[in-house]
Amino acid sequence: MLGYKNVRQNSLQDVLGMSSKQALSNKIRSGFITADELIKICDYLDLEIVIRDKGKNKDVIKLDTDDITDVD
After folding, report:
1. Confidence class of residue 70 from pLDDT cuts 50, 70 and 90?
2. Residue 53's beta-bridge partner residues?
3. Are 9 and 41 in contact (CB under 8 A)?
4. FRET pair for 70, CA 20 to 30 Å: which of 25, 35, 40, 44?
5. Residue 7's pLDDT is what?
6. Which of the pair, 60 or 28, is modelled with greater confidence?
7. Residues β-bridged to residue 58
């Protein structure tokens, strides 16, 4: 997603509330990102997360920042 939007990884530090570049790097490298974090990243990149019924070609669920469960 970052490459698609031509955005550098370190710009996500503030979006995800990471304390350092190293913490962000460790998070990305681990491959473990929560749904809330993915929503935040997509919102920052002006992208949507959609669950689509392929048979009906219809969006069933759209996730956005209103669906984030953690409160900062």
Report:
1. low
2. 58
3. no
4. 25
5. 92
6. 60
7. 53
Amino acid identity at 46:
D
Place of tokens 């048979």: 55
Full-model pTM: 0.81
Please compute the mean of the pLDDT values over residues 14-38 and round it to a whole number: 91
Tokens representing residue 71 in the block: 């409160």
* Nearest Cα residue to 15 out of 29, 32, 3, 33: 33
Determine how many CB atoms are found less than 10 A away from the CB of residue 55. Answer: 6
Confidence class of residue 61 from pLDDT cuts 50, 70 and 90?
very high
